[in-house]
Amino acid sequence: MKKEIKDFPQYLISSDGTVYSKNYHLTKQIKKLVPIKDYKGYLAVHLCKKGKQITRHIHRLVAEAFIPNPENKPQVNHKNGNKSDNRIINLEWCTNQENQKHSYRTLGNKSPMLGRIGKNHPLSKIVIQIKDNEIVTEFYGTHEASRKTGINQRHICECCNNKIKHAGGFQWKYKEIK
Fold it and tell me: What is the CATH number of the domain that holds 59?
């Protein structure tokens, strides 16, 4: 089954993800377009509209043409995780959260920052809590300091960045790494 692509009347999309030009190079011939792979691995095609070339992802074209979206969900998920499989039965509308959960739970993908909190986070700076010019304790980042002391994280950051002098009755500084 083929349908005209919304906003691109010169093109057709099939339920298996094949894209056709209805007037290939102004010859009135129907021609199958060759998809390209984007930097994330999704298949896309270049469509022309009013003399401008516009790149569209094939999975989104299939979903817009064939899959109802009554809840107006913004993303299209590949159920089997194969970004090249743009068949109707492999696609579903989803929210960003649903898409992420599918990636982690169903496909076994892991976030690159998973488990990297506190001292394991590459951007953590050691934060020193100071009272009466003596170090009280050290924390692996402002988030941990805030969580353990109950002092607002933003105030700790402002103190560490010399924007304010005290937060929660303490001075705060980033530990210099040598």
Answer: 3.90.75.20
